[in-house]
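Objective 1b: paired records.
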Amino acid sequence: MIRDITIGQYYPVNSPIHNMDARVKLIITFLFILTLFFINTFLGYVFVILCMSAVIKTSKVPLKFMLKGIKGILIIILFTAFINVFMTRGEHILFEWGIFTVTIEGILIAIKMCIRIVLLVVGSSILTLTTTPIQLTDGIEYILRPFKKIGVPAHEIAMMMTIALRFIPTLLDETDKIMKAQQARGADFDSGNLFQRAKSLIPILVPLFISSFRRADELAMAMEARCYHGDENRTRMNVMVLKSSDYRAVVILAIYCIALIILRFLAARFSFIW
C-alpha cells in the first residue's frame, strides 16, 4: 500500500508532455482542478475522462502505473462515498434506518464525488510524473514572481514546496522499510482495536522522524557546501522558453474549457442530461 502512492515521483520518458514548459503545465493543472468543480453532470465527467485518457496516452506513462496511486487514497474515496450516500437528503428515498437515509440523489452525488477525487489525483500525478523537481521549482518561482513586489519570498516558497513534494516517495520508501523491519521482529499492525493499532505505529513514527531530520540535515549541509544562497545572483543552466507545443497546449485547454461550458449549458437547458 505504501509503495502504491505515486505523488511526487518522476517517470523519465520522452513524450510531448514531458517536453512542455513547466509553467504551462502548472497553469493547465491548476485550471483543470478548477474545472472539476465546475462540472455537475455525468456527461461532463465522461468528457473529462476521455480528455484525461488522451493526455495519459500522450505522456507515455503507463496507465497501470498512473492508477496505482489511487490505491493509496482508497479509504478516503470510500469514506467520501459513505458520507454522501447516507447523509445526503433527497426526494427519492430508497432506504431509511434511524439517522441513515439512502436516496437516489445521495448515490448520484457520491458517484460524482468519487470520480472527482480520482480525477484530482490523476491530474496532479501527471504534473509530478512528467516534470522534474528542478523544472517544478523554476515554474513555481516564475509564477510567484509578481508577488515579490509585496514581499512574498517566491523562491523560498517554490523551493520548500518542491523539496516537500520530492521527499514524499523517499519517506514512503523509508516507512515501508521500517514496517518490514518491525514485522520481522514480530510487530503486528493489523490486529487489535483502533487504540492498539495507533499505539503500534509508535515504533514506526519514531525512527521515521529521526530519519527525516537526518535527511533534512544532510540536504541542508549539501546545499550549503554548494554555496546555495537562495535566489540571490542565481544563474540557470536551462532557461525556460515557451515553444510551439506550449502554445498548442494552451489552445487545447481553451477548447476544453469552452466544451465544458457548452455541456453545462446543455445540462441546464435539457434536464434529462445528468
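Objective 1b, second protein:
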Amino acid sequence: MRGAVKLTLLSWKIVNKLKNPTYPSGTNLFKGKGVILTAAAGAGIGFASAKRFLEEGADIVISDAHETRLADATKNLSDLDLGNVSSILCDVTDDKAIDDLFNFAKSKLDSVDAVINNAGLGGECELINMTNDEWSKVIDITLNGAMKIMRAAIPVLETSQGCIVNNASVLGWRAQAGQSHYAAAKAGVMALTRCVALETVEKGIRINAVAPSLAINPHLAKTSSNELIDHLVSQEAYGRGAEPWEVANVILFLASDLASYLTGEVISVSSQRA
C-alpha cells in the first residue's frame, strides 16, 4: 500500500511538472551561426523561436508582413542584448520581397545556417460557406509562401550546408471541421518538406518540419472561437496548449547539429490523445 501511495505522489509531481514547464536556459547551441525567420513578429511560435535562437547564441534576421509589429518585435529582441537582430518587411507571397529578404540577410549575417519557415494563415470556416478568395488566401500564404521561401533558401544554404525547418500542423494529418483550407495547406507543407528534402540531400541541406497541435497565443483568439479553443485544450493530455517556446524548442532541435540524421521528417509537437 505504501508503494502505491509513493507511486501516486511521484506521478502527481511528474504531471504537475508537465503542466507547468520550466523555461530553458541557453547553452550556446547556435553560437556563431546565422538564422532567418519568417513571420517572427507578434506573440506566437515565430517570435518565440527568434528569442530562443538568440538565447542559444545565434545572430538572426527576422521578417514579417506587418510593419508595426515587426518594429516592436525587433526592439524587444534587441533589448535582450544577446546576438545581433536585423529585420526586414517580407510578404511571403511576393517574389521580389523574398529576394530582398535573402539579399538583406546575406549582408547582415556572416553565414546563413538555418531558415525557419513560419508564415501561415488560419481561420475557421466551413467549405460550403467559403469563398474562392478565402480559400486562395490561406493556400497562397501558408503553402505557396512556404514553397517560395524554400526555393529561395536552397542556393543560399548550399554554402553553409544548412537546414530549413517548416512550420506545419497536426491538421495536416487529422480532421477538424471548419479547417479544410488550413488543413489542406499544412498537408501540402508536409508533402513539400518530404519531397524537397530528397532533392537537397546531395547539397548537404536538411529539411524538416514541426507539426504543433495547439500553441496558445493571442492571435489564436482572433481566428478561432472560444468554444473551439476550449475543445482543443480538452483534447490535450496535459489539459493545456503548448507554450510557443515549447514548439520553438523542437524547431531549435531540428535546426541544430543534434538532428544531423533527420531530413524529410515531420515531428509532431503535441500531447493530444489519439
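The CA atoms of residues 84 and 256 lie 19 Å apart. Residues 32-269 form a domain with the Rossmann fold fold (CATH 3.40.50.720).
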